[in-house]
Amino acid sequence: MQFQNPQKNADLQSPRLKHPDQAPQKGSASGRLTTVIDGVTYDITDFMQRHPGGSDMLMLACNRDASIMFHSYHRRLDLAETALKSLPVLGGTHVPSPIETPFWKTMKARVNEYFDKTKQSSRGNMLMLSKSIALLVMTWFLYYLIVFRGYWLLGPILGILMAINGLAIQHDANHGAFSSYNLLNYIAGADNDFSVGGSSLMWRHQHVVGHHAHPNDVHLDADTYSNFPILKTNPALPSRFYLKWQHYYAPFLYSLLGLDYYFMDVPAFLSGAYQKIHLQPIRTVDQVVFWGGKIFFGVMHFVLPWFYYDGFSALWKVILPVQLIGSNFLASLFIVSHNADDIEYNYNGGDWAEMQVRTGANWSIHSTAWWLASGGLNFQIEHHLFPGICHVHYPAISPIVRRVCEEFKVPYTHYTTYSEIYFSHLKGLKKLGNMPDKKE
């Protein structure tokens, strides 16, 4: 495991690492929506409904520096910059983006060439739509059998299907990659609220604004610091005596993820921030989906099982098996790709795209079953480089990404099987838990 020294506070001022909440933009007194890209402040109010990626993705850029999101989601930078030039400028001075390195430019050009040659959209296709519909039908049919027909032994399977909904439907949708139709992206993204128990709104802030821009950064990625002091998943975090056993108890704690998402989204929403990331201006539709999803999920997964199973027996027959098994499956899949023994933390090499490769790892990329069940997260490197590309395309672009990494001598970490990366994850947890604090 290659451990880097944590970034100092002064380093957080650099364009690459500037936190999206550092010196947030307030917008104009007239209520106009603004964003900052490469040092320039733009008025995006009127562009909101014309944004090709949809208003929901653009809302994430409101009142914050969105430079990293802009460059990471726009593979065809010339087209994006043409649109940018049409926006009203409110101030600031253009600064060349440090993200546009030779490595990143070459990577984008090769992937763009693939889509040009195959004449495909990089978003979801009929395979994505059909398998998502099939997954939703299976999930809710199984729910019907368990809650209304008494087949409670099927509860763990329902939990796993709910987790796959989170991995294989809402994940792409809330990245704007599920479909070329932005309304369909929003509907599929709300699967998080109504089928999984989380919040599409909170997830977009935690995952798109924070994690994807700064993976494994101890200051900027909530995924790497939010579980401390219970777990230490970054070498820059302080040590605690009990953490030496975290590789034993962590797998059990993963079972609590779903309940944590369901309940802890509420105080975060009310506070107006997810961890260090302030929320976008909240629209009526955001309110409706957030509270509607919490109420609907609570009724379907807590109230109705309690009613149909006569009280407390619902806990051990339905509620806990569904939540605990599903949460463990979900957490165990997504945590390994950034927390294996061979990946890097707190990368400070200055190349954003290289950071995405060095802080992630692929696994079981030749397995169709894992590809479908994980929503392409077994192609973690490809996903982090191109979050706006639907996961149905990852097997095709993976060899392209790997060749570019070889050309630029950037390590491309891959595990042959899931069990291999899972045990590497536990090994990494053990090493982190036994690591003493570094002396300044």
Chart the SSEs and their pairings.
Blueprint: E1 2-3, E2 34-37, E3 40-43, H1 55-59, H2 67-73, H3 77-85, E4 89-92, H4 102-118, H5 126-147, H6 155-173, H7 182-189, H8 191-196, H9 200-211, H10 222-225, H11 246-253, H12 257-271, E5 273-274, E6 277-278, H13 284-308, H14 313-334, E7 344-345, H15 352-358, E8 362-363, H16 368-373, H17 380-385, H18 394-407, E9 414-415, H19 418-433
Parallel strand pairs: 1-7, 8-9
Antiparallel strand pairs: 2-3, 3-4, 5-6
Helix pairs in contact: 4-18, 5-6, 6-7, 6-14, 13-14
Report on the structure:
This protein starts with a strand and ends in a 7-residue tail after the last helix. The protein is globular. The chain has helices at residues 55-59, 67-73, 77-85, 102-118, 126-147, 155-173, 182-189, 191-196, 200-211, 222-225, 246-253, 257-271, 284-308, 313-334, 352-358, 368-373, 380-385, 394-407, 418-433; strands spanning 2-3, 34-37, 40-43, 89-92, 273-274, 277-278, 344-345, 362-363, 414-415. It contains 19 helices and 9 strands. The strands form 4 sheets. A 3-stranded antiparallel sheet has the order 2-3-4. Strands 1-7 form a two-stranded parallel sheet. It is mainly alpha-helical and 440 residues long. The protein has 2 domains: 1-6 and 119-440, no CATH class; 7-102, Flavocytochrome B2, Chain A, domain 1. It is 52% helix and 5% strand. Mean pLDDT is 91; it is low at 1-24.
